[in-house]
Q: What sequence folds into this?
């Protein structure tokens, strides 16, 4: 079974500095990372907004990987541009500049084919627009959603409405604490689960992640790497590998399948951080992903 | 099979403040935590130094749990006293005062029975004394060792000699980075493994731990708790549960047994943090430990 995933999110330019170097205006954006990761598993339909400076060849490349772009709008103006720096263990990005540019003009509307997609992934963007996207995607049976601290602080009411309509929430541990106003991560997770999502994935950077439901929990480490070049996009490619695997699963509600998807998410993300921007995740093959999956399974098995 | 473990380390008074309250001069010390944890699995022989202010009843209580104290020396003066505070997520203790008191007079010497113990655990103390203890314990076949940042900074040469004679090193991730002078944790771990120990356990606080050898790695989460009162002694009781299980194992060199021991270490530590000082680990029973072990196994199994 191979369901098409509808993803709504940003396509961007990133200017990044890590201990391993600096890159100016390389391709990034949550929907970009997510789609490239997920396209190893299944077809993806991309909803986003692009400025006139965004390279057409990249969209053509995405098309060649089975990522449809008919729900992607080109507008006059500059694309979204993020400038950030990572230091030391690179556990956190320090945002230096955020140039929204054409991003405020993004209003997710889907064509009939997109509306029929069974799985919707909402990358991080304005919760009111996420809510609109959920209403637009009428054929959706599984809503997987991300968000960040900015919306928790500034648009919490809209975000709460999104949570009510979300099946699987994929956020990092600080966001879990912010939403719940609880320090203890288990207490925080339980509170977030009471706000809507039946499944919560808590990302913990180099410490891996866990997924929990009311009475179930499963832990996955990050795939161990001796070379981490740039963590940008790790969370989005985690979500891409996770959602990608679920889209091929007979029963995406089964916790057993969710657990496998967690492993696929984790190993898919491990390729992203091995290069700047999308350069390494572009070259990762399904057999490479499967090899790391098998290794990872050994690392958590008695 | 039940081997007796010889442990050398501190018995102390701890004055602690956490978000959950303050306790003055409660019982602590690495050998104390370790012994109580390990005594759930097997007999322990304790080597330590005690001031005249240390409560005799506690040593009698330890004896009643199968912890021998004939290698423990009472001296005139005050016992070692540590004053510390934990804030927020309690990931790190802030040391406020360290009163060594009689601790510098500790010179580990063992009686004939102790010298015959097959397993030696060296809790954190001066590396020159750890080295002396290894030479004293002539019957030892398995040396498991801990250390802290202070010795890495101030007695690195002696510590390197200890590492050469250590089979299993149990330290936290910052210590791994300090010893190796490497930021990437996998690179750091490989470098530490090249310095002597064939097995390295890396403790990561609330993120659990991993154990690695040259070509093997295994990850264990921390047992999820909604109530963490005081993290003091978590690392020592982890080591106690880990070493305790290994002492009962047919083949403590097998990685499969090491992996099981990691799980026992992790769940044993989970009791410690549920109360101040030793109050909760004292009441933990083997059936409670086994119950959490079984739960934990499910949390990492597909």
A:
């Amino acid at each position: 079974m191979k369901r098409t995933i509808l993803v709504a999110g940003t396509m961007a330019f990133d200017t990044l500095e890590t201990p391993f170097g600096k890159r100016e205006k390389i391709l990034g954006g949550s929907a970009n990372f997510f789609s490239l990761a997920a396209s190893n598993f299944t077809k993806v339909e991309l909803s986003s907004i692009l400025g006139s400076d965004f390279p057409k060849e990249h969209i053509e490349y995405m098309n060649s990987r089975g990522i449809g772009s008919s729900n992607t709008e080109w507008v006059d103006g500059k694309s979204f541009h993020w400038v950030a720096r990572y230091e030391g263990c690179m556990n956190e990005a320090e945002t230096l500049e955020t140039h929204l540019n054409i991003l405020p003009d993004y209003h997710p509307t889907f064509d009939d084919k997109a509306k029929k997609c069974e799985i919707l992934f909402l990358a991080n963007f304005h919760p009111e627009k996420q809510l609109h996207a959920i209403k637009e995607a009428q054929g959706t049976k599984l809503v997987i959603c991300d968000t960040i601290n900015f919306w928790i602080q500034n648009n919490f009411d809209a975000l709460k409405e999104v949570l009510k309509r979300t099946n699987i929430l994929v956020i990092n541990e600080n966001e879990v604490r912010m939403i719940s106003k609880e320090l203890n991560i288990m207490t925080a997770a339980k509170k977030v689960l009471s706000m809507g999502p039946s499944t919560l994935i808590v990302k913990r950077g180099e410490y891996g992640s866990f997924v929990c439901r009311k009475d179930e929990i499963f832990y996955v480490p990050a795939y161990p790497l001796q070379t981490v070049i740039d963590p940008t996009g790790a969370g989005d490619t985690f979500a891409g590998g996770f959602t990608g695997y679920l889209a091929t699963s007979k029963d995406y509600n089964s916790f057993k399948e969710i657990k496998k998807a967690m492993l696929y998410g984790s190993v898919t993300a491990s390729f992203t951080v091995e290069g700047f921007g999308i350069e390494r995740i572009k070259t990762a093959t399904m057999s490479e992903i499967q090899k790391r999956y098998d290794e990872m399974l050994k690392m958590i098995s008695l």
